[in-house]
Amino acid sequence: xxxxxxxxxxxxxxxxxxxxxxxxxxxxxxxxxxxxxxxxxxxxxxxxxxxxxxxxxxxxxxxxxxxxxxxxxxxxxxxxxxxxxxxxxxxxxxxxxxxxxxxxx
Length: 105
Fold this sequence. Notes:
By secondary structure, the protein is mainly beta. The protein contains no helices and 9 strands. InterPro entries: Cupin_2 (IPR013096), RmlC-like_jellyroll (IPR014710), RmlC_Cupin_sf (IPR011051).
């Protein structure tokens, strides 16, 4: 039996672009209202937005955080980050996520 909560939102689409012993690169595409589902990052990662947009991060303990993304402006997060990512904007949103396998959490 799955431990993930019942989804009420459309799932975001992930497309694996590169994977080898050093990195995993995934493109994430979100329609308005789409979500990744709750997950924990096992490695340090870098995100490069393809489009401007607004994401809401649902965090442990019921907290939320809003992130305003700008196309081409990268940001990084440490391994161990836990969240559900939701496109709370009014337009489709995409980003490319690069996970660095040499920096586990």
